[in-house]
Design brief:
With 305 residues, the chain is an alpha/beta fold. The protein folds into 2 domains: 105 residues, no CATH class; 126 residues, no CATH class. Helix content is 40%, strand content 21%. The protein has 8 helices and 13 strands. The strands form 3 sheets. A 6-stranded parallel sheet has the order 3-5-7-9-11-13. A 5-stranded parallel sheet has the order 4-6-8-10-12, with no helix packed on it. A two-stranded parallel ribbon has the order 1-2. The chain is elongated and about 80 Å long. The protein starts with a helix and ends in a 16-residue tail after the last helix. About 6% of the residues have low confidence.
């Protein structure tokens, strides 16, 4: 083997090793997006990756000499074929993670009793009510129609409406997050461009100093603070926390509006909060845990609604 061939092979080995490390980093981040940023997820990804390296090295050492004699081909060709299979298999990994998430959610009875978008690898959360109120839970229960009562599920019998001793100071929470805003909008904002509102892995804090109306399409991830009323009528997918100091009006229809994380609504004495139609509001501790990347904070309590 001449010097040029050796250099080419060494360069290919270097690129192959570098690609393997990239695979590990990318797969770890994809796993975090599906199952949450928790130590068991990181441990599983790294363990499986290292297991694959060791088993592959052992199997190649045992099988490769036999294949070379049988096929009368260079070992480099078998190595190239293996790299091709690994590259093709890399495209299947995101789909496998997605399938695993769906299976775990199904096994955990994905409803408001459980932690939405969570994995069996993380610690179990205590049972939560569908709606928790610091004041009069009976008034909320009486306002639900017969068709709505079995839609409010959580701990206890339907409708799962319970009184909570916790009364969060939402204006103070909103003000603290607003100081960290990456994007700020004036009161009365309607259909803003959401292309810069963040994504998984690039979370953003967005502050609207008044009412906000969104009737178009868009997506975002991070923390959204609305100092006034929030109207949602478009097809929006948001991952994170939405804090609304006014009232909320979400009208479904067509494609679902998905909020994965949590929504905290202060409300007003004269207004009403309405959620209707094809809408999915899902509590997710996995998504909330990702907000640690924005600031250090302490979770005092979460109300699953």
């Amino acid at each position: 083997m001449d010097r040029l061939t050796r250099r080419i092979l060494f360069a290919l080995f270097f690129v192959s090793g570098f690609s393997g490390l990239v695979y590990q980093v990318v797969w770890t981040r994809i796993a975090f997006a599906h199952f949450g940023i928790i130590l068991p997820v990181l441990s599983v990804v790294i363990s499986v990756f290292m297991l694959g390296l060791s088993v592959g090295a052992w199997a190649a050492g045992r099988v490769l000499p036999f294949l070379r004699r049988k096929a009368q081909l260079s070992a480099a060709l078998f190595y190239a074929a293996t790299e091709l299979l690994i590259g093709i298999g890399a495209f299947a990994v995101p789909k496998l993670f997605q399938t695993g998430e769906h299976l775990l959610l199904a096994a955990g009875q994905s409803d408001s009793v459980a932690d939405q978008n969570m994995t069996a690898l993380s610690a179990a959360v205590p049972p939560l009510p569908g709606i928790a109120s610091p004041s009069n839970a009976t008034a909320i229960t009486s306002a639900l129609s017969n068709q709505q009562q079995d839609n409010v599920q959580g701990t206890g019998a339907d409708p799962s409406v319970r009184t909570s001793p916790l009364n969060l100071d939402l204006p103070a929470i909103a003000a603290s997050w607003a100081q960290l805003a990456d994007l700020s909008y004036p009161a009365g904002t309607s259909n803003p461009d959401m292309s810069t509102w963040g994504a998984i892995g690039d979370l953003k804090v967005v502050h609207v100093a008044g009412d906000l109306s969104v009737t178009g399409n868009g997506s975002g991830a991070g923390v959204l603070i609305v100092d006034g009323d929030f109207h949602l009528g478009g097809t929006v997918n948001y991952n994170g926390i939405i804090i609304v100091l006014g009232n909320v009006d979400i009208q479904g229809g067509g494609n679902a509006k998905n909020i994965v994380g949590g929504m905290m609504v202060q409300g007003t004495l004269t207004g009403t909060t309405n959620v209707a139609g094809n809408v999915k509001l899902m509590y997710s501790s996995a998504m909330i845990n990702q907000l640690y990347s924005l600031t250090r904070y302490q979770i005092s309590s979460w109300i699953d609604q």
